[in-house]
Design a protein that fits this description.
Blueprint: H1 2-28, H2 33-57
Length: 85
């Protein structure tokens, strides 16, 4: 179980990096269809991976929290704490 959690977090980080890099590229090459297609592909892959993570382990950000009352975002462990990984 812990292995899957770590793999999902690593995948999210990889997609974030790729999206950031493609974002920078698209800033200077806004008409690149290939880069835009890659951006959309990685955006979808990241969203799917985040959805899987959230369903199994809870939100990564406060904006992903589905609770209204009580506010459960502060219930630990936080994603970056050792006990969460």
């Amino acid at each position: 179980m812990m292995y899957e959690k770590q793999m999902l977090l690593k995948a999210i980080q990889k997609y974030d990096f790729a999206l950031y890099d493609l974002n920078l590229y698209l800033d200077t090459h806004p008409h690149s269809k290939e880069a835009l297609q890659l951006f959309q592909k990685y955006k979808m892959m990241k969203q799917n991976t985040e959805d899987r993570y959230i369903k199994k382990y809870g939100p990564l950000t406060a904006q992903q929290s589905a609770s209204n009352t009580p506010w459960n975002w502060v219930e630990g462990p936080w994603p970056w704490e050792r006990s969460a990984n």
